[in-house]
Amino acid sequence: MSSEETPEEDSQGISSKRRHHRNRRVNAMEYWQKGIMDESPIKERWSREFKNPRLKHIVPPAEQDPNQKQADGLVVEVHRRTCEVRMDGEDLTSVTARYRATVIDELGEFPAVGDRVTLGRASDDAEYMLLKVHPRRSALTRPGPKDRINQQLTQAANVDQVVIVASVAQPPFNYGFADRFLLAAAFSNLPLIMVLNKMDLVDALPPEAEDFLSLVDRCIPISAESGEGVDELREILAHKVSVFSGQSGVGKSTLINRLVPSALLRTGDVRVKDGKGRHTTTSASLFDLPGGGMVIDTPGIRALGILDLEPIDLARCFPGFFPDGNFTCRFNDCTHQEEPGCAVLAALEEGRLPLARYDSYLRILSSGN
Fold first, then answer.
1. What is the Cα–Cα distance from 9 to 5, expressed in whole angstroms?
2. What is the CATH number of domain 62-133?
3. What's the sign of the alpha-carbon dihedral 151, 152, 155, 156?
4. Fewest CB atoms within 10 Å of the CB: 64, 117, 215, 282?
């Protein structure tokens, strides 16, 4: 340290170097699995002053103990530090597997219901450990909690279609939530089936719900209480993996109990105070349909955000704005607010676009997705 440098300045310099080296770190395991790296990945180990680096080879968890017994299976339920896995070739009973920190680091998040995984254990009486999560062919995702809003969480993996359960009364149909789910399904490249429950409480579909008839892949009015429309839904679910979601109180658990009598899910009424639902599903679970196929039940959520979506991208893809899919506004960066030559504002003024849809767009736009 020179005579002009103070200990405080030297300390700041070391901290700056430390931050610089942290920023250079990459997920070597991920690169190796994708084929970008040919050799076994390595981890750099530095001293506190970033001197004398040592290289440590990273061994995948599945290869750390060559003598352990390994088997593949399907994740049917997920908890904080463990997951329930149905082993291949076995009956419907499942085993409990603990997570290895290295596996979670590779995946970037916890395993999800519907994931194909590899488990291992040292002996027949030892506990199972999660060794590997196989690549997903599809996934339905949502943002993390408020303190980790930018962390993408997987609701369900390896699904064929998304089923949003909405109610037409008690609680009333939620236009904004349906729009967000429609966007989420589109970004995940999954078909969206809209189930309108509690039809026994109304004489006709609410106008808000009718706006979605031409936007979703299929719309099925039902009554989970009376059974109306449930047989039609069974045909659509047969031999497919379907993830069910919806706001609390819409009757999702009641409907799944009709589809899968052995599920025995807890049900609850909406709160009288605010008309919102009580949470009865606390974790995602997988159930086998009697006629073939599987249903993944996810906890009821009152909000669903859209990740990493720029305002111009939302303006271009918002459902219902451009029926033929062609962006027809005069300016390419039009966000449909005050710009001249806006095709969306023109459609709104002429009555070809429902005001509720435009208001839903503005809410999502102003909320930062």
1. 6
2. 2.40.50.140
3. negative
4. 282
Domain ranges of the chain: 7-58, 62-133, 139-297, 311-366
CB burial string 305-342: b at 16+ within 10 A, e below: bbbebebeebbbebbbbbeeeeeebeeeebbbeeeeeb
Provide the pLDDT for residue 60.
58
User: 226, 197 in Cβ contact below 8 A?
Assistant: no
* Class of domain 139-297 as given by CATH: alpha beta
By three-state DSSP, how is residue 272 classified? coil
In whole angstroms, what is the distance from residue 24 CA to residue 30 CA?
Answer: 15
Global confidence as pTM: 0.72
> In terms of C-beta density within 10 A (0-12 exposed, 13-18 middle, 19 or more buried), how is residue 282 classed?
exposed
The first and second tokens of residue 236, run together, are 């659509």
CATH of domain 311-366: 1.10.40.50
Domains 139-297 and 311-366 share a fold: no
Distance CA(118)–CA(106), nearest Å, equals 14
In eight-state DSSP terms, residue 247 is -
